[in-house]
Amino acid sequence: MAQQYKALQSQVNTEPLKKKGSSKGLKKFFVKIKRSNSQSMDDKLEDFKRSGFRSTAGPRLGWSKELNDLGQPFGRWDKDRVALWLHVLGLSMYVGECKRWVKNGDHLLQATSHDLEKELGIRNHFHRKKLQLALQAISAETRSPVSELDHTWVTRWLDDIGLPQYKDQFSEARIDGRMLHCLTVDDLIGLKVTNQLHHLSLQRGIQVLRMNNFSPSCLKRRPTPDEDVLQNCPGKVVLWTNHRVMEWLRNIDLSEYAPNLRGSGVHGALMVLEPRFGAEIFATILSIPSNKTLLRRHLSTHFVTLIGSAVQQQKREVEAQPGYTPLTPSLRVKVKKGIFRNLKSDDRDDFVCPIDPRSDRDLCLNGGGSLPRKDAVDAPKEEDEKSDDVSPLIKYVASTCTR
After folding, report:
1. Phi then psi for 373, rounded to 5 degrees?
2. Which of 44, 133, 227, 392 could be bridged to 178 by S-S, CB 3.0 to 4.6 A?
3. Distance between CA atoms of 255 and 276, rounded to whole angstroms?
4. Which residues of 292-305 are buried (b: 16+ CB within 10 A; e: fewer)?
């Protein structure tokens, strides 16, 4: 019995050693595989270099150029090529219905809004508008800088103007450069943007893009090493992003209030081009208490020094006009309700940033010329005798930018 017990005990003691040895062998095997894979990955990543530009949907823009550069008019495209173009446009959810119903490019060009909704299943108003704008642009056979900005770029642009909270709505609606150019007040309300300050932020953001011929890299996100003392420079400030304004606040010893600008919609174009935006509402947005008069005076002094006395004087002239309504951060856009809303809504269908070919021509800062009228889809026809002159404030800012 004793011999059997010893034999059984030795068997129990050796079994764990065998299992432990076998697991160690498997561990070595997987370690070798991991090392070999990581080494190959390191070799592949050696050539990677980060550029100074922000990431955008470059490959998608490249595909669209290849489709357009084949030398064949859109009307003669077959349904497969039209379906690929629809995918590149960001409307891939309708590719299946496109292959089923669309015969060729000309067939899609002749389609009405009702056809797009019934046959292609495009029930989303923004998707239909996006497709109609793209069809009008591609049928004109001329390329505009605004058509190079896809919906991915627009969502990044919302970060630049300080409105990242609307990125999901804009992304789902596939708002691209053409739609941004022709955005209406009704569109913004449909996107659940009801704050009046945010409407003005988008308006001035679109305006400065037009002034720079929709250049995707016109905005300044950070200070440059050779930047001089910032005094009386509205032409530079108008290009500042929300992040650049926060950097300026840190430089004037207001760093503790700078984070309050996130989601506020404050950027350089709003500060300079909006007549109702002044130091008072700026301090309110920053949540500087009203009893801290020295801090508010400090902000006001630096604000006027930054934008210049000429711009500040024109802001004061607007404030002195009868019927002037001061701007507040909580002010909402009034939504007209009722069964006759869509029948009598001339003031509701206006563009967020009105399209004026004369002002566009005068305000292009980089020699881009006037904007093509083909991009202004459904733009209201303006009579020369009723057209308003360009604002003196905007003219002054444009002159400082071209110096």
Report:
1. -70, -15
2. 133
3. 25
4. eeebbebbbebbbb
Cα–Cα dist 24/53, whole Å: 48
pLDDT for 108-159, tens place per residue? 999 999 999 999 999 999 999 999 999 999 988 777 899 999 999 999 999 9
For the full predicted model, state whether its pTM sits above 0.90: no
- Extract the tokens encoding 302: 């630096």
Which residue(s) pair with 240 in the sheet?
Answer: 220
Phi, psi at residue 220, to the nearest 5°?
-105, 120
* Alpha carbon separation from 302 to 167, 197, 282 (Å, rounded): 32, 22, 12
CB 187 within 8 A of CB 377: no
Question: How far, in whole angstroms, is CA 278 from its chain's centroid?
Answer: 24
Residue 320's pLDDT is what?
94
Smallest CA-to-CA distance from 80 within 61, 54, 108, 99 is with 99
Tokens of 402: 């071209």
Residue 46 Cα to chain centre, angstroms? 33
CB atoms within 10 A of CB 310: 15
Main-chain phi, psi angles of 78, to 5 degrees: -80, 175
Phi, psi angles (nearest 5°) of residue 195: -75, 130
Question: What 3-state DSSP class applies to 240?
Answer: strand
Main-chain dihedrals φ then ψ at residue 131, nearest 5 degrees: -65, -40
d(CA 275, CA 312): 9
The H-assigned helical ranges of 320-373 are 357-363
Secondary structure of residue 377 in the 3-state scheme: coil
Q: For 52-133, where are the E strands, in sequence order?
A: none
Q: Split the chain (403 residues) into runs of 10 and give each run's mean pLDDT.
A: 53 48 55 50 46 40 51 90 95 96 95 95 96 92 87 97 97 96 95 96 97 95 82 94 96 96 97 96 96 96 96 95 92 68 46 69 32 35 40 58 49
Cite the DSSP H helix spans in 184-325: 185-190, 196-211, 234-237, 242-251, 268-273, 279-285, 293-307, 309-319
